[in-house]
Amino acid sequence: GRRSDSRRDRVSGWHCVGELKGHSSWVTTVAFNPKRPILVSGSLDDTIRVWNLQTGQNMFTLAGHARGVNQVRIGSGGQVLASCGDDDLVKVWNLADGSLLHTLSGHMRDVTSVAISPNGFLLASGSEDRTIKLWKLDKGTLDKTLTGSAGMIRSVVWTHQGDRLVSGGLDNKVRLWDLQSDQMVRAIAGHLNSINEIAVSSDDKWMVSASKDRTLRIWDLALASPIQTLNGHTQEVNTVAITSDDRTVVSGGSDGTIRIWEASTGDLKHTLSGHNSGVHSLALHPSGRIIASASADKLIKLWKWMG
User: Fold this and answer.
1) Is the dihedral of CA 25, 26, 29, 35 positive or negative?
2) Please, which residues have CB within 8 angstroms of residue 290's CB and are 6 or more apart in sequence?
3) Which value, in Å, is the radius of gyration of the alpha carbons in the chain?
4) SS3 assignment for 131-144
5) Cβ neighbours of 13 (radius 10 Å)
6) In the chain, is it the N or the C terminus that has fewer CB atoms within a 10 Å radius of its CB?
7) Cβ–Cβ < 8 Å for 71, 42
């Protein structure tokens, strides 16, 4: 009976269960490896760190970007890592040994976002040069460039079907790109300031955008229409993710909080405080029970659902 007693004593909810220290500047991005207990982070200290989640050890550090790292993303197979930075470059790494596979140059300004297609064949990158580039991941060659965004791009994501891209940035609009025609098919207005990140539900029915206007907005993807607005952050919302069951939205903001929302109602369920500065990136573990948060306080915190 002792185990059940200790479970009763513990408050159910999200608890900070660890922090990863090592970066010497803002941590801008985090991603879980879907296949192994590994977390990857990127920072304005120009490095990418690969962490063993079982020990909390920094397994290795990838130095290759000449300026700050803006985003890291891991392919669904857990083998390939893509990164981008303020050096106008995209880099592709082998996550098993940390070797650099490709350096992709072509953007004229900072590269703010990278996204690997669901089938693993293509890599999309978004830049302050207002273009999205699609690269062949195996060869490291440019496939095509999508133009037509009116502002610098901050976020690019694939639909799970892999037939469309969604982007957001400094023109305050969510843009939908059809990859059959390579055309922008929708520019959805509603936010009052720039969009920092977008996440798409696993069934591709809805998406959520995080904005400098301090709100998150949920949109119907097929109709390109607003469903609801999530209010609660007191400063700009930098990052957003959706749990794999599509029931929960998790956001992080410059107010230093992580907020957990019920997707269907828009109700704020939990507010997690602990960072001493803005939260700039979130990653959700495939289990749905662990959140990694990256902050300007140079720390990565790990939060676990204790039920």
Assistant:
1) positive
2) 32, 284, 302, 303, 304, 305
3) 18
4) CEEEEECCCCEEEE
5) 14
6) N
7) yes
Which residues face 38 on adjacent strands? 52
Q: How far apart are CA 260 and CA 254, in angstroms?
A: 15
State the Cα–Cα distance between residues 18 and 12, nearest whole angstrom. 17
For residue 192, give both structure tokens: 């009052």
* Beta-sheet pairing, 132-136 with 141-146: antiparallel
Give which of 290, 292, 233 is closest to 257, Cα–Cα: 233
Cα–Cα distances in Å, from 40 out to 34, 52, 56, 69, 294? 11, 9, 12, 12, 11
Q: Which residues pair with 90 in a beta bridge?
A: 84, 104
CA distance 155 to 194: 11
The overall pTM is greater than 0.85? yes
CB 50 within 8 A of CB 67: no
Each residue of 246-274: pLDDT tens digit? 999 999 999 999 999 999 999 999 999 99
Quickly tell me which residue has 């079907």 as its tokens. 161
C-alpha to C-alpha distances, 15 to 22, 124, 291, 298, nearest whole angstrom: 22, 34, 10, 19
User: Could you give the C-alpha distances from 134 to 115, 116, 122, 228, 288, in angstroms and in order?
Assistant: 10, 10, 6, 31, 30
- Which CATH architecture is the domain 14-306 placed in? 7 Propeller (2.130)
pLDDT tens digits, residue range 214-257?
999 999 999 999 999 999 999 999 999 999 999 999 999 999 99
Eight-state DSSP code of residue 185: E
